[in-house]
Amino acid sequence: TESKRFSKFDSARLIDADKAHYMHGYHVFDDHREQGSLTIVDGEGAHIQDAEGQRYLDAVGGMWCTNIGLGREEMVEAIADQTRRLAYSNSFCDMANDRAIELSEKLAELAPGDLNRVFLTTGGSTAVDTAIRLVHFYQNCRGKPEKKQVITRINAYHGSTYLTMSLGGKQADRPPEFDFLSDGIHHLSCPYPYREAQGRSEAEFLEALVAEFEARIAEVGAERIGAFLAEPIMGSGGVIIPPEGYHRRMWEVCRRHDILYISDEVVTSFGRLGHFFASEDEFGVIPDIITTAKGLTSGYQPLGACIFSERLWEVIAEPGTGRCFSHGFTYSGHPVACAAALKNIEIIEREALLPRAREVGRYFEERLATLAELPIVGEVRAKCFMACVEFVADKATRELFPEELNIGEWVHLRAERRGLLVRPIVHLNVMSPAVTLTHQEVDFIVDVLRDSILETVEDLRAAGHW
Ligand code: PLP
Q1: Would you call 271 exposed, middle or buried from its count of C-beta atoms within 10 A (0-12, 13-18, 19+)?
Q2: Residue 61: CB within 6 Å of ligand 1?
Q3: For a designed S-S bond to 343, which of 78, 85, 220, 267 qualifies (C-beta 3.0 to 4.6 A apart)?
Q4: What positions belong to coiled-coil segments (predicted)?
Q5: 231 lines ligand 1 (CB under 6 A)
Q6: Roughly how many angstroms between the first and final C-alpha of the chain, as a whole number?
């Protein structure tokens, strides 16, 4: 269908202005100079449309975030109503707004265990940043100022601020032009069975990962480690699904050593894995702190949250100390963003989207698994609406194509021509579509990917790369 607003856009002018003025996230200077960008002007459900009128099924889900789908009139109304009534009000010190209070109460109800305390942020990075500052504050309050080091993992992604990027462990995110913090941050191995298990069974691999954690604690000293930070399933690190029982075991180690467990659910919450939060429902863990964003508003407004336990609250908020948690963003508790989150949650509950996501998510997993038989597919990893196809030059040895070939991009471009967007990350195609996907839309994704992979194989052969 033609875009409702399409006529307003002059794509040639947009391309020029984009090249002249707009520096994107993860801007690749040479590529952008030559090719410009795919300029999106319209969206509905799981579909988006570019400035030239080409329509795509967006299997990327924006950026892991358009969970309930785009263009919902109810969301538009909720955002417009709130903007009309109260577009902004600050949430510092003794100020609050009704929407931020209602959302905090709702998040406390949805979060596991005694995670009843909510700090609202502007997105995922600021939620993780807040979590680390909260760990510092908490440890200082309880008289353990030395207990602040953080353990994370190779391939982790926790955001794009100086601190959160330093916590991350993706090699591709650490180009030599950027600086990183290294003091007090330790990276454990990535729980990546396909590449790291190296012939060991899943159970043996799990034991090795837990043993590595214990060894690192012994080396650094439990009295110096404040927190362990982990995504339930690593997202931009390549949809890494850890061995069964991994998070539960890591959590038990944390509890034994008085280490706070921070679950970074920026991607995995609000339906992406078929639950509001995956930590307990999917992985049997009740974290001390959960960070969330993205699906919290399904991308309709920028918003994040750092949700933490009553146990932490009791320490930091001890009566009579006169303390102030001197941390806050101008847009913390933004009433319009909170109104969007409340409506988003209402829709997820009213339309029973979580059980539906689990059901269609299983179908998505099954259909994607059929791609594993294709010549250059090394592994297909999928859990509900987080999925990834990993390409290899040799299925037996799992050898990768040369990085500069950018194999993920080959498949992505061929899928794009067929009306499907997947996210290429070097040798991967990553997917996180709207969790409202129909069975037919799942079929479309898998059929187009299959054709695109087969075409890639032919083109690789023709070009002498394979
Ligand atoms: N944490 C995780 C697990 C993420 O995947 C992301 C973003 O992709 C972030 C944090 C950062 O969120 P934001 O981009 O909203 O700052």
Answers
A1: buried
A2: no
A3: 78
A4: none
A5: yes
A6: 39
